[in-house]
Amino acid sequence: FGPWHFGMTAAEIRAVSSHGPYRTFKNGDLETYNATLCDQKQNVQFYLRGGHLLRIVVVTYEGTGLKEATNTWLSTYNCLAKLHGALETPGLRGENARALANQAEALVSNGTKVQMAPLSQSKDRFIFSSFDSYTVKGVTIYRVWINYDKPSP
């Protein structure tokens, strides 16, 4: 994703200074709020294992607004379709992306996670997106994100 690739060390990720600054989590993983996806500035998190990049997560939405999350899911759907072609949306049916988004909203509002992924995946990465919710101290938080994973051997 972007200028980053699997296998990079934390130092190599930070060396991509055009997208910094980077914040380090307690466990050594990193994030930046200065990456772009489909011309939108996004929060990107870098997950390391054994000191090397294994997963990149683009957080397109995290907040308390279900409608905002749904609209972001729709934007994420359109972005992934633009970048990678046709998408599969397990458990969702609809004539168009808006109908899929409405169905996703209804499912997530009832505690179900929905996902989407490009039908065509490259050999060097697996891409999928999730839309779900969780509750903290009585407040429901909605999330939409895209995972760029290193394929399993």
- Cross-sheet strand order for the largest sheet: 1-2-3-4-8-7-6-5
What is the residue-mean pLDDT, rounded to a whole number? 95
Order of helices and strands: HEEEEHEHEEE
Instruction: Characterize the largest beta sheet: strand count, sense, and whether it forms a barrel.
Output: 8 strands, antiparallel
Report the uncertain regions: none
Query: Number of helical segments?
Result: 3
What is the CA-based Rg, rounded? 16 Å
Tell me the helix content.
Answer: 10-25%
% residues in beta strands: 35-45%
The separation of the N and C termini measures: 20 Å
Shape: globular
List the defining traits of the structure above:
3 helices, globular, 8-stranded antiparallel beta sheet, 153 residues, alpha+beta
Could you describe the 3D structure shown?
- Helix 2 packs across helix 3.
- The two termini are 20 Å apart.
- The radius of gyration is 16 Å and the shape is globular.
- It is built from three helices and eight strands.
- The longest helix is centred in the middle third of the chain and has 19 residues, at 66-84.
- It is of the alpha+beta class and 153 residues long.
